[in-house]
Specification:
Layout (H helix, E strand, L loop, with lengths): L13 E4 L7 E7 L6 E8 L2 E6 L24 E2 L6 E2 L6 E3 L12 E3 L4 E4 L1
Length: 120
């Protein structure tokens, strides 16, 4: 379980409709503004729905290189837009790049009965 950060959505908060995320694909979300903002992303990968804090463990920059662009070209891995590090979508573990062996910070999500991804 991760510590709560400023502006992190409370458990049960609706984040995004599952239908708005392609399979595979991801959707970036921002809550709050300035230094207190909380950035995360939700992804669909091989039937699973996962969430991560949008922060590379190497340089603490966001992963996406343009809005909602979190995957590499062949959609096989998450890719940091700053230095090109590659992460396994199912675990957030970096397997190539300057932060090899480190992981993305998980952001717990689940689906509700109405097809929304919610904070868990």
């Amino acid at each position: 379980m991760t510590a709560t950060r400023p502006n992190q959505p409370e458990p049960g908060a609706r984040l995004v409709a599952l239908a708005d995320i392609p399979e595979p694909g991801a959707k970036g979300l921002t809550f709050g503004a300035g230094k207190e903002r909380f950035e995360c992303f939700v992804l669909r990968w091989q039937g699973a729905v996962l969430g991560y804090v949008n922060e590379c463990p190497h340089a603490r920059t966001s992963l996406d290189w343009r809005p909602d662009a979190f995957f590499n070209r062949d959609m096989s891995a998450l890719q940091c837009g700053t230095h090109g590090a590659l992460f396994a979508p199912e675990s957030g573990q970096c397997f190539l790049g300057p932060c090899k062996g480190k992981s993305l910070i998980p952001f717990a999500v689940r689906l509700d009965a109405d097809g929304w991804v919610i904070a868990a």
